[in-house]
## 1
Amino acid sequence: MRFLSETSSDGVCEQLFLLDDIPGALWTPEGAACTRPLIVLGHGGGQHKKAPDVLDLARRCVTECGFAVVAVDVPGHGDRPVDEDYHRIATENQARVEAGADPAPLIAAFQALVARRTVPEWRTVLDAVQRLDHVGAGPVGYWGVSLGCGLGVPFVAAEPRIGAAVLGLGGALASGAHAALITVPVLFLVQWDDERVPRGQGLALFDAFASADKTLHANPGKHGDMPAFERGSALRFFSRHLA
Amino acid sequence: MRFLSETSSDGVCEQLFLLDDIPGALWTPEGAACTRPLIVLGHGGGQHKKAPDVLDLARRCVTECGFAVVAVDVPGHGDRPVDEDYHRIATENQARVEAGADPAPLIAAFQALVARRTVPEWRTVLDAVQRLDHVGAGPVGYWGVSLGCGLGVPFVAAEPRIGAAVLGLGGALASGAHAALITVPVLFLVQWDDERVPRGQGLALFDAFASADKTLHANPGKHGDMPAFERGSALRFFSRHLA
């Protein structure tokens, strides 16, 4: 793990790093020196580790809860090179959707393909970050919606260190099988008029989680319209389960 | 409006009152002297104005938000006499359900009948309470689930002073038509395994609210199993919209 930069503002220390060839960002309280809860943030499709909603949530986790937060670029996103295979498949999928194909099974297949790489990558990141003195091996949560849900559900299912997860904007077709392996507390976010994930698919994914403690929040609007106050819900959820 | 008693504990003043023949309770911050937001609480079936969940929510609204809260007994509940008509209908309905009838249309018809009385009663209560110096004509919210939703939806639809409402454990069959008249912000609570309100009925009621700003929270469990943390969600919702 190689640190590229370290900056601080308003009580939040941001360290950019490379782990093997994975570019990431770690946020911690300024002056932090001991073990604390850690949130792994998975960004959305076409976004990156410092997309505005990721950054806002990361900073709030640090300032309001004292947590550490880590996010890395998904292959083909942010500071990572274009992946020729993914790029070709994504371009083909877009053409099919424009020609009238149902996007849900295409998204599901694509996310399953990418998850085969990101699940082991994110586990390696978790190993490395938890070895740092100012993070340590404390409780771990995961937050990710849209692509961050498609990649997050198999990650949470595979990784026993994750103790609570905020997921959403995903469907049962893509993630139902892995969701049935998840038993930790889940906050699941649905956009009621999601044009990419049919409502029934989203509700069926909520149904599929094996967690006894799970809560669904639904709000009107399309895939990209999730209200900012749901970031506050995520903070309270993590505080309840990890702090 | 005749006050029967006044007691204070832990910063909360509780006044029991009679308005005509309606017994009610008013909670305000100890020493309150000016206008503040007011929450009208509607209790559940078989409960009363001081049922434990009503009382807990009322006290939290006062201590955490500085609001006033009022609740009155629904006819046939709490300190009100048994209403022969309601009692007969409820007994007949129970026998029908035990004989295998679908409870949803029976509940819908019964709540519509009772609402014809409670809507004008609650509007009178609101008039009276807002004339008190320590309540005043500030913003008003409504909270009610189960029977408190069945009676609350027509109340919120009819009463322009209500600026935000927490409703839940109700279905579209009973309340859909009135819900379509509601445009204020709504937080709607669903129990995912509700044995009294079919899931599709609950989701359809959420769908029916005309409010641009509405949020659904769903949790696993039966009709009576709503988690206590949803009271915290209600407080934050009212703070966001009324404070």
## 2
Amino acid sequence: MRTRPLKVALLGCGVVGSEVARIMTTHADDLAARIGAPVELAGVAVRRPSKVREGIDPALITTDATALVKRGDIDVVIEVIGGIEPARTLITTAFEHGASVVSANKALLAEDGATLYAAAEQHGRDLYFEAAVAGAIPLIRPLRESLAGDKVNRVLGIVNGTTNFILDKMDSSGAGYSEALDEATALGYAEADPTADVEGFDAAAKAAILAGIAFHTRVRLDDVYREGLTEVTAADMASARRMGCTVKLLAICERAADGQSVTARVHPAMIPLSHPLASVREAYNAVFVEAEAAGQLMFYGPGAGGSPTASAVLGDLVAVCRNKLAEATGPGESAYTQLPVSPMGDVVTRYHISLDVADKPGVLAQVATVFAEHGVSIDTVRQQGKDGEASLVVVTHRAPDAALSGTVEALRKLDTVRGVASIMRVEGE
Amino acid sequence: MRTRPLKVALLGCGVVGSEVARIMTTHADDLAARIGAPVELAGVAVRRPSKVREGIDPALITTDATALVKRGDIDVVIEVIGGIEPARTLITTAFEHGASVVSANKALLAEDGATLYAAAEQHGRDLYFEAAVAGAIPLIRPLRESLAGDKVNRVLGIVNGTTNFILDKMDSSGAGYSEALDEATALGYAEADPTADVEGFDAAAKAAILAGIAFHTRVRLDDVYREGLTEVTAADMASARRMGCTVKLLAICERAADGQSVTARVHPAMIPLSHPLASVREAYNAVFVEAEAAGQLMFYGPGAGGSPTASAVLGDLVAVCRNKLAEATGPGESAYTQLPVSPMGDVVTRYHISLDVADKPGVLAQVATVFAEHGVSIDTVRQQGKDGEASLVVVTHRAPDAALSGTVEALRKLDTVRGVASIMRVEGE
């Protein structure tokens, strides 16, 4: 074993960074044995240097992240600060100055992964980011490597723990969205500003990363259709239950039937209770991968948190260090298929639509005609009358999303339709 | 991209081998793009050369596997013949003659993995074997690489599809073992001679491989405690149901509480219906991995079959070919902890014991005394009387297996105990 240590710079020392530093110290011998050389924490860039950081030598702390990545003796930079800048410039600067990079930065990878990949390749460095998607769950490596000889057709999963906690709470207790969000915040599952989670931005970034890797093409955050869960009501949840379903915020990446394009989307959807994703509780994550030869695989585990994310970061650290010692690099960007990303209207899915309608003869016929005119076939209709008003719950067969949303628009214009109470897609069947 | 192809020799052209050859042809462009060079099937060694093999150039077929691996121009040997010899000699010969190896041979890896690893290292070649455990489910790579920065404490799973099919059938239909085995055979889930599956040899080989990788030590097939499922009765299954459990054949690899040894075992066990493994149906596989930082991860998918196994083989082929082009090798054997494997008696577990006893006062006190004398604490007792006879069902708290089996031995000697109707371990709580 080489005795000269590999030098690691840590950018960011919050929940994840401090756990990475702790494990690097407490498990130093194991890491050295697995890598073939010791690893040494050579510097830690933070915003608040005065904060006491247990177990970290104060001499390693700096506020000058740029100077740290430019030192020239750093073998690996671990970036856990998040956000677009200064993270992007720090990572590309690290590549220029001889370091490989392990990152947990989903936002940056989804926004501008191509720039990072290109810089890594130009300088012959590694860019690893298992921690960017679904915390400790191995997903990037299985998709990039284990399934490299297969053809992935679909990735479908729960990739945001906060929203799964909220929906699980709504489902199990009958609570409304606000109430469930309050509980998630109180328990530390939701941040003070929950926008990134509840509006689906976090899940959309992960969907972009997964779709790009799964289909060997470039998918950016802007390519991902996105709906959050703030509009999901207790009534939707109850309606899902009546159908033998529950509601989950799903990230869905699909290859089109003709194989010539891909789609990526994040939205709430009803899935049958018999589907394995329906039983993913609390803040857990789970992802299905469907591949031509492998069939259907599922990966399940804690999708966030300091320790699980640190586990993913350290797994990448070991790989990157081994590559350094072998003077090799791992897999880089694979975007050779150049498959375009189609808009949401092209996605083929099913709708569950609740309508408030006038309780008089002929309404159902009128509504059914609108579906037929848009080429949307109806699977089931449930009609309930109450005091001159009635509700119609329609579940469609599979149709392009554009046809489905066109149907809803036309329904809204019918005199006999008083309102569209809810629209939700149905998946996992 | 390099235009000169990498040459692949295929040893074995059965269910898996023919599927590997088929995908290599139909997906040649994708494989080339992902590897960075085309791959070419340069020879196929078979036992029956006269058999028609669709899509394979007859000129590539040979019965002389030794000559094929000795050719000197082969970059990668794919070994899917199984068994100890001639597979072992062919693999080590391949390493000597410049090839890296992708193998699906669980029996050989569990029996003598160390010899293969040593030969690979001596000649600077790769040895990859994702397909040896749980078919298409990425497990070896996540354990060897994704969790390389973590400390795995436990691996627990269903790793044999045939036995899971049989137990699932017994559970859902109330069928006995023989009847369920007949159905598995009729549907092609069990082989004509089902010994390797039903006696647990196949699962034990996988447990040895998983334990070795998870704990960075050497674990051989002989180190794995093994009980098959041929003794599991419809009555056991019914008894499990009454406890809110089902019966699964589990492979369990554990680090001892003091961290100084490991255990590996395969046996039928009761697990609660609420445990995710309880809902693994038919011939599917699923494996839980518990690691210090990552927490609890689960991997699920088809555990066998031509296509899923071929997916795993081809993922390894891509990795090994990339390494060849980079003149590097992937991770080799990691057995630095040298943790010993403890015998079954040291495993801490729980027992579910059904006793036929005389229906008279004092029997329960007598039985309870035997448990106490062996230091085994009782969790629950259920007593049922019928016509002068009675049955006692005892579920214990956790205790060393030696103490539990000592208790059972002593119970058999009691005059008031007419017989021990069944003993089963209880896991997953």
## 3
Amino acid sequence: MDKIKVSLLGATGMVGQKMIKLLADHPYIELVKLSASDSRIGKKYSETVKWIENGSIPEKFRDMKLVSTSPEDNKDVDYVLSALPPEAAEPVELKLVKNGINVISNASPYRLSKDIPLINPEINFEHLRILEGKDTKFVKNPNCTSAIMAMPLVKLLGFDYDRISLVSMQAISGAGFSGLPYMSIDDNIIPYIHGEEEKIPAEISKMYGTVQDGKINGKNIRMSVTSVRVPVKVGHMGVLNMEIKKGVDVEELIKNLNNFSPLKGFNGLYNAPAHPIVVHNEADRPQNAIDTYNGMEVHVGRISYTDRNLRMVILGNNLVRGAAGITILTLELMEQMKL
Amino acid sequence: MDKIKVSLLGATGMVGQKMIKLLADHPYIELVKLSASDSRIGKKYSETVKWIENGSIPEKFRDMKLVSTSPEDNKDVDYVLSALPPEAAEPVELKLVKNGINVISNASPYRLSKDIPLINPEINFEHLRILEGKDTKFVKNPNCTSAIMAMPLVKLLGFDYDRISLVSMQAISGAGFSGLPYMSIDDNIIPYIHGEEEKIPAEISKMYGTVQDGKINGKNIRMSVTSVRVPVKVGHMGVLNMEIKKGVDVEELIKNLNNFSPLKGFNGLYNAPAHPIVVHNEADRPQNAIDTYNGMEVHVGRISYTDRNLRMVILGNNLVRGAAGITILTLELMEQMKL
Amino acid sequence: MDKIKVSLLGATGMVGQKMIKLLADHPYIELVKLSASDSRIGKKYSETVKWIENGSIPEKFRDMKLVSTSPEDNKDVDYVLSALPPEAAEPVELKLVKNGINVISNASPYRLSKDIPLINPEINFEHLRILEGKDTKFVKNPNCTSAIMAMPLVKLLGFDYDRISLVSMQAISGAGFSGLPYMSIDDNIIPYIHGEEEKIPAEISKMYGTVQDGKINGKNIRMSVTSVRVPVKVGHMGVLNMEIKKGVDVEELIKNLNNFSPLKGFNGLYNAPAHPIVVHNEADRPQNAIDTYNGMEVHVGRISYTDRNLRMVILGNNLVRGAAGITILTLELMEQMKL
Amino acid sequence: MDKIKVSLLGATGMVGQKMIKLLADHPYIELVKLSASDSRIGKKYSETVKWIENGSIPEKFRDMKLVSTSPEDNKDVDYVLSALPPEAAEPVELKLVKNGINVISNASPYRLSKDIPLINPEINFEHLRILEGKDTKFVKNPNCTSAIMAMPLVKLLGFDYDRISLVSMQAISGAGFSGLPYMSIDDNIIPYIHGEEEKIPAEISKMYGTVQDGKINGKNIRMSVTSVRVPVKVGHMGVLNMEIKKGVDVEELIKNLNNFSPLKGFNGLYNAPAHPIVVHNEADRPQNAIDTYNGMEVHVGRISYTDRNLRMVILGNNLVRGAAGITILTLELMEQMKL
């Protein structure tokens, strides 16, 4: 089979670097073009990137020269993957799509458009079917926190609950490499992240939405979110409390979470974890320092049901499950679904 | 007036050092004895303490020789203040009290005994009156997190609420100087603190309890707590969510919190802040790095009332409001109340 | 006596904030104007500063409206103190001086000009005398690392040494509040600081220079410097090794360092520490976390003389001894010296 | 070929975990026994270890039951690898050797014994030949800092130098998982590490020593070391200054360092890096956060020769090049050398 050829927008950022790492040895996706902001065009990747991923830049990308984000420079690939920051993303991605180029993007603009799928693969890969028959495919991935926190909800939203209360403690890498000065966040908690508390319920609502006439209608979810920035580098952790009237069988719930594996019928999903949700029984898990290495898994712990309150702690790697990993898994799925 | 003479148990620990700092220049409390574990008896304070408070050891305590925690060594003071760790505290404090020595203690044993006041001064100084007429006075201060989180509840418990959901993000100093190895908590969140989640509701219940026949009956409070350890040194922050049926006037609530000042009728409360609760309007406050310096204040921010959910962020200095400061303020109050 | 009226350039930065703190209650220097970059002019200080110093903004500056850095806006003060960043400083300070306004500045431009004193007060206050009779006074303070590391050299440069080798481990605040992203320096050492390794020997040479015909000629100092950035917030630490042919009496040296107190003949030096150099005998001192609180002292430890190598560890507060504190002490000295 | 069977002493510590990781898929070394302190004997590895390496415990070791460190429990393996702490190591290792069991150890006791090779493979694998013909083989690996800093000296000790001055900035993992409380070292530098400054020159001297009559005589090396603890988790960095009378050709030196590859004649050295020394040309490298991933390489940067002073920055992974990696590479070499 011919490899799927992709170009990568925003190749020098943290998410871009993670994509390069995940694609370096991919069996059937070939990263053939790297693009970045105008000032970098024409430069070798190794000369212009500030590489921070562990290990060296994969050999084949070291000397690749950066191209622009224009349709002209990206027209001969099968897909453009976008790791652009939001302001840059909006005009660039739209222009590509209008020029008939397929785009899968991590950036926030258009995430809530009803006719653009917002894919967190295990949750709503079926939403990709609204693209069937379309000449140009435009797909979005959710915000890092939404992608992680949405996962265990798959087994919770069926309960007759009153409200979900979520406190998300988010890693600094979520703000980008230069997002937070050391002096502002070391030994500190900043109890506010601009825009975050609105995005999370809205995006989760859409992920769990239903398709009607090619459009996605969000599910009604009652959720209060408080997002704070904590001094850790990688891993967004959430504490979820959920008022549930009827009794919850915790053992059953744990089994259901551990067994959740909706993609197992597919072959060739190189980035799909065998168990997308991993439940920990140890009281002091999950922890960022231990459980964010296998990036696509979402880790859950401290599950209890007391006095009608279901509580759990949720943790995921914001750069992998929250960004680069789901973009690539989305493309793998599109290939396997023959979209 | 003669100064109140006190001895300090656990003088070399973090809370002990903070007490020494707060008492160094106290106008009417004189710290005359320092005691610590057996291995330190007879040594000069400056030779055996690992001093970590900013600035040097106050001159008058440098050469003070440590005594034991026995009644014999502490009988000629007016009060013994205890900053002992819980295991050490239980037998020592009880023995002192049985020998007729007054004790005000930070340690957890007996905090929930109905005939021992658990004092967070602004909240329940009236509970001290159950000591009236007693020959020996034994008073407890609450756990650091309970002391801080209880404060704004003074204006919240009157609402017709369904449940309080609290996520407490607690500083490393709360576990003691050597409580957590760097390798275990740097760049990490540990979503569990042994014993903490039970203590907080129980102690807050008692603080807001009512006195009957010399005993304190806890108030019925419906509260779910999740406590996590975060990599900050000082300052426990809580995110509180509270389901409230009837509308809440946020402006009114802010005013009530800022104006809360129940001790203003007293003179000579050297450690009582003019405003025990400080409400911040900036979206990104309170922050550990900025707001834990004036230690006795409890800082509140991000107050909102949306879809019947009242949310706020609460922050306090766990070593001052959560420990050393309230011990001393309790003694100041006992003096002013002529107990 | 009338107070000395000063304005402060760069009032919102870290050094500016430290100056405000040090001047808030100064007995004879009155800070009457705050200035900052154009976008802030006309705003109240409390509305435009991101205050990070412990405690609140001193009351009297909260509502002070920022003025520009122009001569017009700063002409009616006795001195302008400058905490501007280097690029901004060069044209602004020169313009003020050309308009007859006295300037004492922390910024790097002109630090090496032979007719402008570069003052580290205890080391070379006598250099201020070259200003005698001048209508307008323009004084520079050294770079933060130079100011700290220069101090113990006062007792070392007299030895018959071959070379001074200095490794400086510098705190993040030295790069300014936003100088380093958390992701770049947390859990990391960056073994390079642009421009630093040249500045330190050059500035120390000038501080120890001699005056001839109103000009300062640098002392010949043989010094190799390696500067690295380490993940601490405050405090620059240096490890100094010095090849000395003739025997060094370490006890004598320690005594000389501890007794160094060249300003004791002056009165009214509010920011002059009694002991500008403090020698620690404990093997594990000085430490940033313990010894940078009393900001003007330079702390020295681990002094040894082995196999003709003199070694010591040097530590100082880069924002106080390295910046704000010496600016103010310089002004105090100029007043006492009637310059 | 039959696999070499090894047991591992100290299997639950940080170095032990790293060894398990490196041996999990080794082509010809089979880890068949894990041992630890008495309290853990008989327990499953996964139940008693606090696993902190990235990723999960390799499957085959999860249920392995821990045995004691006694000769009886370790007699049927080809080699015992020891990652014990020093106090525990001394009696245990000696007893094993006396009972005819081969031991390769990371622990400090006996490192300086003249008849026990102290192996940093690329530097002095030839020292292993003194074991030829011995019934029982007892080999030591150097201290983590010695192992790293010794590497570039292979191309420096030939110069006519006057003195090597080394400042080592050492990571917290070097003190073991629980070696340093967070409160003691976060945001701090501790300018002292017990015993370290003596070990480094002594061990490097022995590594570069010559063999005579089956004994190793240390090379005369003039070296002054200052070791400080810095708040980073992994990676010991050194700044080396070396007074060299005759001119040094820096370009030539860089080439020599990069080309150093003394083990290339061997096959089957699974843990030998192609380039044991990697020279960086970028001014801001090497960095802990970027360059400690490929654990066996020693990274060198900032090489300059100015005014007769050769300066370089040296960095290595203290758990791999400094411990677990060289133990395994030593065993690989012994196998290939047919010792």
## 4
Amino acid sequence: MKATLMYGAGDVRVENVADPVIQEPTDAILRVVRTCICGSDLHPFHGLPEMEHGVHTGHEAIGVVEEVGSAVKDIKVGDFVVAPFAFSDNTCEICQAGFQTACPHGGFYGNPGDRGAFQAELSVVPQADGSLVKVPGVDPETASEELLASLLTLSDVYLTGYHAAYMAEIKPGQSVTVVGDGAVGLSAVLAAKQMGAEQIILMGRHQARTDLGREFGATHVVSERGEEGIAKVLELTGGFGSHAVLEAVGHMPAYTQSVGVVRPGGIISRVGVPQYEEAPVGFMSLFGKNARLAGGPAPVRQYLEQAIQDVLDRKINPGKVFDRTIALDDVPAGYKAMDDREALKVMVNPAL
Amino acid sequence: MKATLMYGAGDVRVENVADPVIQEPTDAILRVVRTCICGSDLHPFHGLPEMEHGVHTGHEAIGVVEEVGSAVKDIKVGDFVVAPFAFSDNTCEICQAGFQTACPHGGFYGNPGDRGAFQAELSVVPQADGSLVKVPGVDPETASEELLASLLTLSDVYLTGYHAAYMAEIKPGQSVTVVGDGAVGLSAVLAAKQMGAEQIILMGRHQARTDLGREFGATHVVSERGEEGIAKVLELTGGFGSHAVLEAVGHMPAYTQSVGVVRPGGIISRVGVPQYEEAPVGFMSLFGKNARLAGGPAPVRQYLEQAIQDVLDRKINPGKVFDRTIALDDVPAGYKAMDDREALKVMVNPAL
């Protein structure tokens, strides 16, 4: 089969490799219907050390189950499923509490990794019963591109934005600031809108993206950054700042901006993977104003059934974050297009 | 009148000074019935630079209103009140949301400061209507020492522990770890018990204090610190850690310990004033396990009516944290006793 491997920063190759096989009785093999490139794939694309053998890439997919291990009971061959970007048993105390990305029997696949790397024709999914969720009543052969795109976002990007909003405990009527106009930030706007936020301020400066942000529900766009951006948001919020700040970038300036625009008692919810370990949390930043810090890798599995239903009911159409569809062979060019910000988010159709 | 002033680290003096006067129409003058020394008073006691004029100290009091400014409507001369350690208008959007310590028209008094410094016979309270809360049906002249002690804790220490528990969103049946066996930590144990925590692990090593912690509801005491202490708590919590961690110290080792013992998705709630500005919050500390960080200066005013009622109903007896009562003249010795950990918390009776 064809699969994508990364051999170092900027070095992405599509190669013919052996088909994956069931290794654990809880595994399933997925034929990938659609996969995509994630903003977080750009981190190794920038920084992966050069290596001889390469690592398999990709962690987002919808697909059809080709084979299941002997212990897989709920997921059947032929099921059309969404695969969360992390696997989990979905039965332990941590999963039941809704934090499947911290499941002691789970983990992150792909990016990098050799089990469950989805930028390929086929992939192994560990803990298939605890991870995969069937999409009821949809045949991927006849489904619209729009529907497939929206279902694919439930693997990571939309539900990561949703997780930001969920952990920020957004209540109807509140003011929300979203930091970052990437696909996750725009998803966070859409999720905040779903939760009834009254004011949604999107901090971003790429017009095509902020235009989609407005379509998703942003009431204001602030293109200024740093102190200037903070002043603008404070002005829009009566001097207080927002109840919820959804941070979808992961770099320190986005954190600093979030601290500046969160109101006393408000919540900063981060889903951009932090590219720092230490940050200000003392009296002058979080503590003095009782601001809270939340967020982490989205437990997509927790939100998946409801989100699939919302997509099927056309309540949300998060697939609009994709602005390009390519074949597997073009994945290296897709990385470059996202890195150059020519593309917002690139979908991959292995059948092309 | 007699008042306490600090002239530098370790230099606390009780002096005769002019009686305070009403300066703003929203001020009231309070005759202090009981005040006390706070763990946070020990920070300037350790680090205040030497100064010529000294600063007035103290921020916790119960007292009787002697005089009110022309704009004070609800609080009357003769009222027996609890004074929160911060003042607030209690009408603005931030106060109404329950974060009075961040009121844009409020502030912290005492410690250091010359308005509302309570280690004195008399003190000015700014924003009297928004800050003071009357204790119904109690005459401080005839009330028991036990009742006065418990009411005094509502000025700061008990409700600061309560705030830690409240912001940690403790639910019945949960596991809670309290870091620190000072008066705030013990108060946090009591508050966690009130909220229905099933397992309360107190991390502390002073037996007299941990004994009171057990009386307040601690089910386990862990005297080990650092990695050893973390391992002990993980062992007591099935390897997962606690749902809520109440950090009542403020130093970096307490933060690190809190990160180590919080379970995935759990909340670290800090009320120990951080003696650091930066701390680990990235993938390896908070983000990876979706742990949350909450807390700040307790909005005592928000919790005060209910807490006064709970004390009057004898539902809680937080005054047990006081293990000594002294006269104003003995305040310098009181600081030393707390600093030497001879005393857990020192009450001051200006009438002695």
